Structure formats: structure tokens, C-alpha cells
Amino acid sequence: MKVLVSVKRAIDYNVRIQIKSDGSGVVTDGVKHSMNPFDEIAVEQAIRWKEAGLCDEVVAVTIGPDAAGEQLRSALAFGCDRAIHVKTEEPVQPLTAAGVFKAIAENEQPQVFLMGKQAIDDDASQTGPMTAALLGWPQATFASSIELADDSARVTREVDAGLETLDVDLPAVITTDLRLNEPRYLKLPNIMKAKKKPIESSSLDELGVAPAAALESLKTAPPPQRESGVRVESVDELVAKLKEKSLL
Hints:
Mean pLDDT: 90
Strand order of the largest sheet: 9-8-7-10-6-1-4-5-11
CATH architecture: 3-Layer(aba) Sandwich
Distance between the termini: 57 Å
Number of strands: 11
Pfam families: ETF (PF01012)
InterPro entries: ETF_a/b_N, ETF_b, ETF_beta_N, Rossmann-like_a/b/a_fold
Order of helices and strands: EEEHEHEHEHEEEEHEHH
Number of helices: 7
Number of domains: 1
Structural class: alpha/beta
Strand content: 25-35%
GO biological process, one term: carboxylic acid catabolic process
CATH class: Alpha Beta
GO molecular function: electron transfer activity
Domain Electron transfer flavoprotein alpha/beta-subunit N-terminal: 23-211
């Protein structure tokens, strides 16, 4: 069994986001980037399957500039066998990413394509479902538990009403949620070994993928500052304040 897993370069979740002065986006220059946390969970899950003998090969794939190779090296340090870097300097829309992943999946023929349920930079949560649609594969999103069988997978996913369990035939696209696992800490020997593992370079043109129509961001603005609270002396005063703000 082969598992394909996507990796995205994103601003590190510990970084405090700053808005550009002209409102055209967020500041990225000189800001720490790391692997999207949901993708880390996907990579961890693939490596656990490999360690348990449930899959033979794990291939990481990313789309982005040369700097995204750093996140691929992290995936290789987790234990991925090899990596594919589709290089582009332009922002990648979810539909473009799905087209790239479709082409790579058709070339690699994995039984499972694991992805993070969303990226923390745009929170779109679109690439996984779009990839499944383009491939014509079953999909299971927001997975908090995955049990693999020979030709199928049982996925427990989180929905508004609680938990839902799906049986999907393989090959399938599965997107991972926070409660699926806790990624391991990378050890220095594994980081050093990762430098010797192969990374294949490709491009949108080589894969025959045309960029999807661009979405235009009109303006980026920080959230409004929170107003200071008001101390009340009694329940009646609290109720009156809530009614005043139309909260009751």
C-alpha cells in the first residue's frame, strides 16, 4: 500500500499575525514558517501506518516556492520515504492545488491520499474535497479515527451533531482533524537522514495544470479591539445591561 500525503508551508501558529500597512495581506517577510499543523497530523498518521506494517511507502508532496522544501525535509524527517515538490512562486488557489494533486495521484497511484482538513493561513477546507471530486474517489473529511482494511477504510469523523462513522472504498481522499493523533518531536538523527532522501521537482506546466481563476482579496484588516468590560453589582443590573445590548 502506498500513501500520498500533502504538506503546506504556512506561517507558524505561534507567530502573532501582522497586517500590512496598505491592507493588502499579512506580513510574511522575515516571519517564521512551518508545516501546516493539520498536515503534520496527516504525516504522523501515514508514518504510524508504515511502522505498523499497514503501508509500504509514504510520499510527501507540496506546492510552493523553493522555501517550501524546508517543510518537505521535515516530512522526510518524520519518516516519509521520498517527496515531490511542485514549484511555483505564485499564490496557489485550492482548485489549482486540487488539480496538481489529481495529476500526482494519477502518476503515483496511492491507495490513500491523506491531507490536513484545512490550512491555518486561509482556513478554506476546500482542497481535499476538490481533489476527491476531480479524481472521482470517495472522501472522508475531518477524520478523528481511521481503521485501514485491505480495500476499504473505516473513518470516524467529527460533525456538528457528534461523531459519524463512514466506510469508504480505497483509493480515497481522507482529511485529518486534531484528535486523530499527536505528532512526534523530530530527533536530530532523523533530521540529518532526511537530507539524503530524494525530493523530485516538478511544475504546473509539467503536470499539465493551468492555474485556476484567481480569487481577489479586496482588503485585509485586523479584528476590532475588544471593548473593556463593565462591573455590575447585582443580577438585575446584569440583566438590564444585557437587554440594553439586545443580548436578551
